[in-house]
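=== RUN LOG ===
request id: a7f3
mode: sequence -> structure
chains: 1
length: 486
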Amino acid sequence: MVELSPFAHRVQLISGLVAAAVVLAVMIVSPGIDSSALSTLDKIKQRGYINVLTLNSATTYYQDIDGPNGFEYQLASWFADSIGVKAHFVTVPNFADLYPELLFGSGDIVAAGLSDGESDFSRSVVYGPAYYQVTNQVLYRKFNADRPREVSELIGGSFKVIGGTAHARLLQDLHDQYPSLAWTEVDDIATEELIEEVDAGQVDYILADSHEIALQRRYFPELRIAFELGEPRKLRWAYNRGDSDSLGNAISMFFGEIEQDGRLEQLIHRHYSHVEKFNYSDIRTFTRRMRTHLPKYEELFKKAAAEVELDWRLLAAIGYQESLWNPRAKSPTGVRGLMMLTLNTAKQMKVKNRLDPAQSIRGGSKYIARVLKRFPEQIPEPDRSWLALAAYNVGFGHVEDARIITESRGGDPDRWIDVKESLPLLARKKWYKKTRYGYARGWEPVKYVENIRQYYEHLIGYETRALREASDIKPKQDVAPLAPSL
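=== RESULT ===
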């Protein structure tokens, strides 16, 4: 369950009033039941759902191609199942608002990467067991500044942190030691946006959690970690100190169980084990694999392309971007095979074995063809294909959100060159809070499409040169190549 609109709030309020009336009626008929005697956990069970306060971000809660996702989303959903209720996720706009919303709002727990003692409100809440450890890292861009190695070398540079976080508190504690150290605390943007600002040269340094930086550095290869500041921090959930021990006991028991049965380790592996520096395959690697790997699968690409009436070279470019043409490729998130299909997509495309190259290529081609048909026919090529590729990566709904944003900004929602400027805005609170599908890592599909375009165009050039070397006659294309979109 996700809180989406004022209308939903009103519906929830009405439902709550109806439920309260029913409970009151039961109490009148059965005077032996005393609601004040119910524990916090019993009240949650009686209600049927638990209110989980969180943030809309890559490390907490977001919408991806298959629906809600995120480390904290998965964790809180498991906990809700363990106590027999549903998880109702309430995304809070700013980090600094999490504690007040828990203490004075309707939240039952906060699952958003908190750590003990990071806030003035910490004395008023109770923290659950630690489930992940992070460090505080200073990030900079390689070509914008020399690597700073200590706090004193940050003085004079522009420096930003998210307000209300442990990072802001850490800098405040350091101010007596470094009185000339200056920084800006911001509340209206997320960590992902701060990282983008460093890459764009808009700010020299930021201080953020190691797992947040690791997730984003794959997309910004020029960013570097200068040094770590302060002590490592252990992430925990928080709940109201005024609550009885019932909720805290249930949380402690839950974390004990998932640590013992291996689910916690598996979840950490799924979300964070693949965050080493992203490997941008250069054209030499691509050319080499065209000779060593592509010949094994070229006929399969051509056969699948003929069935769905697409250019086989486009399908081959997708396959390279997905797996480097490795039929046994597997990611920590569970996608597998040469076309890296999710289990859900494989079932939809009737693929029984994702590791079978023929099935994988056929399933991937059918899926991209299906996505392509969802876009309006008036969108011309190649823009229609680039939009479809973006949807293949991030989900159709998020691309539609980006098209709406593009139009609102005066751009053309049918042109990739305009939409690709709007996709990264889906990671910014100012924009995603207005959309239907919410937060998305919008820069990822942009890089995804641009990489595939490069591989696709190289395949066309390579094939054209080979054919011309074998014949003086200019080859006729079976499928017209997609012209570069300006």
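=== NOTES ===
The CA atoms of residues 161 and 401 lie 28 Å apart.
DSSP finds 19 helices and eleven strands in the chain.
=== END ===
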